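tool=predict chain=A
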Amino acid sequence: MPMEQRFWLKIKKSRGCWEWQGATSNGYGTLLENGTGSRAWYVHRYSWTIHFGPIPEGMYVCHTCDNRICIRPQHLWLGTNAENLKDMHSKGRGHIPSVPPGENHHLAKLTNTQVLSIREAHASGETETSIASRFGVTQPNIGYIVRRHTWKHI
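tool=predict ok
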């Protein structure tokens, strides 16, 4: 049976969302292109393709309804990864942990003042190993600090 025909057999239409009734992965509906062992499509992406055409490279098919199994074309929109994440967070679906930076973090071993001293010592030519020993942390931690991978806020 052709893929599009199999697709429509697994849709439950309502006045709101058109919901997928088949297999799912990560909460999204999935459909195999040609049976076992073939390419799997997320059905919302397949729905976009049959209604609007190819999905441009790097674009996501997003849901206005926030229902992962919805395939209703009017509930779908194209966006970049950044737009999709912004939409998710604006609707309170994403979890951005509130972690205080630097010395205010409950696991911090250094103070802001010490971090500034570490950077000054490194800039003056002291080795990361020597600085690490003096401040009681590891050499990789010193490297992260001086390259501003950590403690970016100061």
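Residues 87 and 119 are 38 Å apart (CA to CA). The chain has a mean pLDDT of 92.
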